[in-house]
Amino acid sequence: MYPFLTLNDDTEITHSEMKSDGRVKVYIETPDEKDGFHNAVCWLPEYSWECIHGYTEEEMSFFQKLIRHNAHLIIEFSQDGGVLNAATA
To answer: Over the stretch 13-41, which tens digit does the pLDDT of each residue have?
Structure first.
């Protein structure tokens, strides 16, 4: 998994390399004092969500918009070894 974005609340958004079927796994994880971590998985390019744990509907709405607005970058970076490799290429 490659780092993509860290939000102010320490939420980490990472992504996989592009799979042979053209899909990219996006993983979201937020530390939580009570539960340990909240997390969710989104598969691009179909925007299918799974393994959602601990997030409210409002938080999920935010993440859905965030991923939708940045999917083109995530997909591009998934083919280039992540944002750090893409930035130096």
So the answer is: 999 999 999 999 999 999 999 989 999 99
